[in-house]
Design goal:
single chain, alpha/beta, Rossmann fold, Alpha-Beta Plaits, 3 domains, six-stranded mixed beta sheet, 16 helices, 13 strands, 42% helix, 19% strand
Length: 425
């Protein structure tokens, strides 16, 4: 079947296996294949080279690069995707030798982000990362960006932008940074409003495709559980990018906010992390972090380490954290191997099991730094503003009109407990 008949870009993936690599190369190439699928391509074959070091000119050995020429013709592929980041010189040399479009892992991930970003901020963040990545590699990109068809590795800033001089691109980078700074001010304003409302915030973090979005949908409060309020879920890498914020409710009736962030992946481009830093910093303002892990993944230890490293870069490893080993229907708990020193509180669940979700909510209630007390409060008539505050921010268990005022029962946080202590019976 030809490329036109399948409507998918035919791709050959290439991996270099070095002695000190922590990640199993076959598993890493499996992940690369999933990334290619997420970008709209079809992996026709893979090439692996074992070597002691990286070739400065071709990344892989020149002999192996010459083999790719033959494979590419025999398999009728249009694109060669490398499992690591390439320099501009390496891209240029490979393009000249192989005469096919050369894409590295970093550009592939940026390409996926460019196709998935839906908000203005998300699109600007991806564009910034792409420009910063492509700027030193323009010579290597000029050839295939001028060809017809586009495809993987060409989304985002167009050919015309990349063919202009570097000063123009640098100006555009500065303009995007300025726009993102203004958006950041609005984000900070909303953060202050949430902090003033004193509603606990729980952040979901973890490797891409660990099940964070599914978990978030399952935990959304019934009042907000309409289809429009649920986030997109699909079994693919980076199915969702934009940060989401939803309401949920603890077993004691107290409401809290759930925030979901972009999933992580091994060898996540540094420029992308930098560009998304303001978005990822939502986690910094959370009261509790849920680290969602796909317990069925054979590389879960490496995936967990990837997440911890990014959280460490963001300086938020000191936050209270619960490790959520998801997809327990696909593994045996006693078979899990992970670094226990990095895991304190933990729970094993399936995000599709309602009983497991209820157990997770109980664990969130137990681990939230904000402690709640069950109290009865009497609000005198004429002070409806206070009653409205409690009605808006708390789950009211009982409401009764008495001679002295309105009596309500609720679980109250420690701040409001001190603030409204005179009203507590």
């Amino acid at each position: 079947m030809t490329q036109k008949e399948t409507n998918l870009e035919r791709v050959l993936i290439v991996g270099l296996n070095l002695p000190n690599d922590k990640i199993d190369i076959e598993n890493s190439l499996d992940e690369l294949e999933e990334l290619v699928k997420a970008a709209g391509g079809e992996v026709i074959g893979r090439i692996l080279q074992n070597a002691n070091n990286i070739n400065v000119s071709y990344f892989i050995g020149k002999g192996k690069a010459e083999e790719i020429v033959t494979y590419a013709e025999e398999l009728d592929v249009s694109t060669i995707v490398f499992n690591d980041e390439l320099s501009g010189a390496q891209i240029r040399n490979l393009e000249k030798l192989i005469d096919k479009k050369i894409v590295d892992r970093t550009n592939l991930i940026l390409d996926i982000f460019a196709s998935r970003a839906s908000t203005k901020e998300g699109k600007l963040q991806v564009k910034l990362a792409q420009l910063q990545y492509r700027l030193p590699r323009l010579i290597g990109f000029r050839d295939y960006l001028s060809r017809e068809g586009g495809g993987i590795g060409t989304r985002g800033p167009g050919e015309q932008k990349l063919e202009t001089d570097r000063r123009h691109i640098l100006r555009e980078v500065n303009n995007i940074k300025h726009e993102l700074k203004e958006i950041g001010k609005n984000r900070e304003l909303k953060r202050k409003q949430r902090r003033n409302a004193d509603i606990p915030i729980v952040a979901l973090v973890g490797y891409t495709n660990a099940g964070k979005s599914t978990l978030l949908n399952q935990m959304i409060d019934d009042e907000d559980g309409s289809l429009d309020n649920k986030v997109f879920v699909k079994d693919m890498l980076f199915a969702t990018l934009d940060t989401t914020l939803r309401k949920s409710k603890l077993p004691n009736g107290q409401r809290f906010l759930l925030t979901d962030t972009v999933g992580f992946v091994s060898k996540l481009p540094t420029k992308l992390v930098e560009a998304f830093k303001s978005t990822l910093e939502e986690v910094k303002y959370a009261d509790l972090i849920l680290h969602v892990v796909d317990g069925s993944n054979q590389d879960l230890d490496i995936q967990m380490d990837t997440t911890f490293k990014i959280l460490e870069d963001l300086d938020i490893l000191d936050k209270p954290m619960v490790t959520v080993f998801n997809k327990k229907d696909r593994y045996k708990i006693e078979d899990l191997i992970y670094d226990s020193e990095l895991v304190d509180e933990k729970i094993f669940i399936s995000a599709l099991n309602r009983e497991d979700i209820d157990l997770l909510l109980e664990m969130i209630e137990k681990n939230l730094p904000q402690k709640f007390k069950k109290v009865n409060i009497n609000i005198p008539y004429g002070e409806e503003n206070i009653l409205n505050y409690f009605m808006k921010h708390y789950e009211i268990h009982n409401l009764e009109y008495t001679e002295k005022g309105t009596m309500i029962s609720l679980n109250i946080n420690h701040i409001d407990f001190s603030k409204y202590n005179n009203y507590i019976i």
